[in-house]
Amino acid sequence: MQRSVTVIIAAYNAQDTLARAIRSALSQPETLEVIVVDDKSLDATAAVAFEEAKADARVRLLAAEINQGPAAARNRALDAATADFVAILDADDVFLPGRLSRLMACDDAEMLADNIAFVTTDRIGGLMDRTWPDITPDFQTLGITQFVLGNLRRKNVARGELGFLKPVMSRKFLNRHGLRYDTRLRLGEDYDLYLRALLAGARLKFTRRPGYAAAIRRTSLSAQHGAAELSEMHDRLVAHLQMDGLSPALTQAMQAHRDEVRRKRDHRVFLDLRREKGAWVALRYLFGATNRIWPIARQIMSDKLGWTAMAGDAAPAIDVTLLLPPTGQPSVAVHQ
Fold first, then answer.
1. What is the DSSP letter of 108?
2. DSSP secondary structure string, 208-257?
3. How far is CA 46 from the centre of its chain?
4. Do 159 and 332 contact (CB within 8 A), yes or no?
5. d(CA 89, CA 236)
6. H/E element holding 168?
7. How far apart are CA 304 and CA 297, in angstroms?
8. Which of 87, 91, 105, 158 lies at a C-alpha separation of 20 to 30 Å from 99?
9. Residue 269: helix, strand or coil by DSSP?
10. Cβ neighbours of residue 180 under 8 Å, at least 6 residues apart?
11. Is the four-CA dihedral 268, 273, 278, 280 of positive or negative sign?
12. Alpha-carbon distance 115 to 166, whole Å?
């Protein structure tokens, strides 16, 4: 019996790409419904969703009264979902043909993920006919320690974070364990949910065959995330370390991730102080703690050399970048 999927789209000011995203989900036979949550957009996002709902009864529009961020929007859709599995789709991305069929063919995991192809917005349609014959569709198990390690920086490579994955998740498992997105987070909310699901016993399997196309969002490396967002994420990583049942290897990996985010936060605070209050105040902050000086200096150097580029930032305008390499360890972005 074919398992069904609820596709969840949290949309904010996405009038130009939302219809494309919705239709890519509707083209999958496993899609029972597409729930669009308009997060109080300032453009015609809600109107676009309404038109798509008129054209296909599987589309449902939920409108937020105030903007609360993607975590809250996704939680609202999770509460309304009715299918066996749920899949997150960003409003400017698309599902590639046959994605859900491949994922649903693996029936012994609560979380099923595939590779992500990063591409410029104007070239995303060109991936619809690409079959990736050289990349095996076989599934591998991704353990929790490997998942955490897959979010750490590697020197001299443009990296991809496994927190970027868009797994199809068992709705029954999420509901049984009371798992929802943390609405305090506007950075790392996916990673946080996946980690808590894995700690609750979820099995995560992935294939390196691409099934999700993500539009590149080019932003300055030094301005990607605000200090407040990084601080909130750091606090969540600290809280993760207080959970029961962590193995020594997992604890070590989580501590390394926490420390990396702390360094990013300190770097962001330094840049904000320099911009808003001047170099002297920023330097006082820099030298206010001995563990800030070298990490901040190294972060500035790494940004300038491109060592900390994310997978999307590393994608060339005429090519595609994959989150997972075709073979080997699933933590470094590669060009295809």
1. S
2. EEEEEEEE-----GGGSS-HHHHHHHHHHHHHHTTSTT--HHHHHHHHHH
3. 23
4. yes
5. 24
6. strand 168-170
7. 11
8. 158
9. helix
10. 75, 78, 174, 193
11. negative
12. 9
- Residue 177's CB is within 10 A of a number of other CB atoms, namely 15
Return phi, psi of residue 236, to 5°: -70, -40
Largest CA distance in the chain: 66
**pLDDT tens digits, one per residue of 234-276:** 999 999 999 998 999 999 999 999 999 988 888 888 787 777 7
Residues 65 and 37: beta-carbon distance below 8 Å: no
- Whether 31 and 22 have beta carbons less than 8 Å apart is answered as no
Does position 122 have pLDDT exceeding 90, yes or no? Answer: no
User: The whole model's pTM is what?
Assistant: 0.88
Distances (CA, A) of 126 to 9, 131, 313: 22, 11, 19
The predicted structure's pLDDT at residue 267: 82
End-to-end Cα spacing for the chain: 36
Look up tokens 């604890």; give the residue. Answer: 251
pLDDT value of residue 223: 42
Tokens of 322: 């994959």
CA dihedral 222, 225, 231, 237 (to 10 degrees): -110
- The token pair that represents 144 in the structure block: 């929790």
Phi first, then psi: give them for residue 174, nearest 5 degrees: -60, -45
What digits encode the pLDDT tens for the residues 171-220? 999 999 999 999 999 999 999 999 999 999 999 999 999 999 999 865 43
Each residue's pLDDT tens digit, 82-110: 999 999 999 999 999 999 999 999 989 99
Q: Kindly report the CA angle at 107 between 214 and 192, in degrees rounded to 5?
A: 50
Place of tokens 């789209």: 9
3.20.110.20, 3.30.70.1290, 3.90.550.10, 3.40.640.10: which CATH number matches 5-220+313-335? 3.90.550.10
CA–CA distances in Å: residue 60 to residues 8, 16, 35, 45, 277: 10, 19, 5, 13, 47
Cα–Cα distance between 78 and 181 in angstroms, integer? Answer: 10
- Helices 227-240, 189-199: inter-axial angle, 10-degree rounding: 10
